[in-house]
Amino acid sequence: MSDSHAPNEPSDVNKTELFNLDNLSYRDEGNNTIVVSNTKTSLILRIRKTNVGRNGYWSKAHTKRSEIFANQRILLQFGSQFLRSIHLIKTSPTFLRELEKSIEPFRPAYRKVKGVDLSENFVFVTSDATQMPSHLVKYAFGPTLSVEIKPKFGAIPIWPATGVVNLVKNSASLFCLRQEHSSKRSRWKDLSTYCPCDLFSGDHDRLVHGLNALLTTPQNNFRVYLDSHPIYSHDVDKLDYGLNKFFHLENNSISSSKQQSELPNGFDHGNVCSCSEECQFVNDRDRLIRGTLLKALLHKFDCTNDDTKALIPFNSTDRQPFSMHCALHADRK
């Protein structure tokens, strides 16, 4: 009998190469999954962690529904120019057990309360967003810079609230409220100055402030990669050297990943944007924020193609009223 939840695996994936531990390296993880990258195939694997579903249970049907939701709802809603399809690939408990051992030294201590779910027979596989898509390689030159932002929920629903707790929830971003929780205070050296409402406000100045806040206190919400190598996160700061290589190819300040790994952490106070005397940016970090990320976030894409037409009408009358003014940042102009 066939498994009704078995996915249709892509025929062009070499599973031997995909699941070769020598090709896999730890990338990152969240509350529900661990992400590893395959250096040979330019693919990433999302591995399910234990105690993810309600009461610690996660069914095969739920895993399949996640794939369907990503490919048939999210992908079609936002379009292929923003997202890439994912696949479910069958694996074995033996592979998962060996993988868990190999990546254990690289995992943050606070994440180790959850391990790899050895009962899950499938992993999510998709292309590595830190690398240039294969169909665009012929148009590109120089290093590839990629930025990962976890923006969190950027609106505050407005509804009639009673009681102290509901009044607080109705006045501030959930992300900002959670920064005051003891678990956040014990985990991070500095509380985040970022507010999701800034990033979703559509206001130029608030967008700049939000991006700079992510750069100042990234926690696990902001990362930068150069040719798939992390150059900026909460525990790595080689950003100035990476930006110098990206923005000023003629300088060639970083010639290999080995040299990159030997660079010291920290802000390079000698870094200035040297593209011209009339340059509007203070330094390369400012150029990254105002000259690159801000323009990307404010860019209006052509949404006339069939794959980018909204399946759900986004009319203001269909939405619950919401605010983008967080009380915890009300003193900021």
- Which strand order does the major sheet show? 1-2-3-5-4
Tell me the strand percentage band.
5-15%
Secondary-structure-derived class = alpha+beta
How far apart the termini lie comes to 64 Å
Number of helices: 11
Q: Please give the share of residues in helix.
A: 25-40%
Q: Helices and strands, in N-to-C order?
A: HEEEHEHEEEHHHHHEEHHHE
Mean pLDDT value: 79
> How much is the radius of gyration in Å?
22 Å
- Sheet with the most strands? 5 strands, antiparallel
Shape estimate: globular
How many beta strands in the DSSP annotation? 10
Low-confidence stretches: 1-5, 53-57, 253-258, 304-316
Describe how the helices and strands are arranged.
Elements (H helix, E strand, L loop, with lengths): L14 H4 L5 E6 L3 E6 L4 E6 L11 H19 L8 E4 L2 H11 L18 E6 L17 E5 L6 E2 L6 H6 L4 H5 L3 H6 L8 H4 L4 H13 L5 E5 L2 E4 L6 H9 L9 H5 L22 H15 L23 E2 L10
Antiparallel strand pairs: 1-2, 2-3, 3-5, 4-5, 6-8, 7-10, 8-9
Helix pairs in contact: 8-11
Function: Phosphorylates Ins(1,3,4,5,6)P5 at position 2 to form Ins(1,2,3,4,5,6)P6 (InsP6 or phytate).
Catalytic activity: 1D-myo-inositol 1,3,4,5,6-pentakisphosphate + ATP = 1D-myo-inositol hexakisphosphate + ADP + H(+)
Family: Belongs to the IPK1 type 2 family.
Explain this structure to me?
One of its GO terms (molecular function) is ATP binding. It comes from Schistosoma haematobium (Blood fluke). One of its GO terms (biological process) is inositol phosphate biosynthetic process. Phosphorylates Ins(1,3,4,5,6)P5 at position 2 to form Ins(1,2,3,4,5,6)P6 (InsP6 or phytate). Keywords: ATP-binding, Kinase, Nucleotide-binding, Transferase. With 333 residues, the chain is of the alpha+beta class. It has eleven helices and ten strands. The chain has helices at 15-18, 60-78, 93-103, 164-169, 174-178, 182-187, 196-199, 204-216, 239-247, 257-261, 284-298; strands at residues 24-29, 33-38, 43-48, 87-90, 122-127, 145-149, 156-157, 222-226, 229-232, 322-323. The strands form three sheets. A five-stranded antiparallel beta sheet has the order 1-2-3-5-4, with helices on one face. A three-stranded antiparallel beta sheet has the order 6-8-9, covered by helices on one side. Strands 7-10 form a two-stranded antiparallel sheet. A hairpin with a 3-residue loop joins strand 1 and strand 2. Helix 8 packs across helix 11 (284-298). The protein starts with 14 loop residues before the first helix and ends in a 10-residue tail after the last strand. The model is unreliable at 1-5, 53-57, 253-258 and 304-316 (pLDDT under 50).
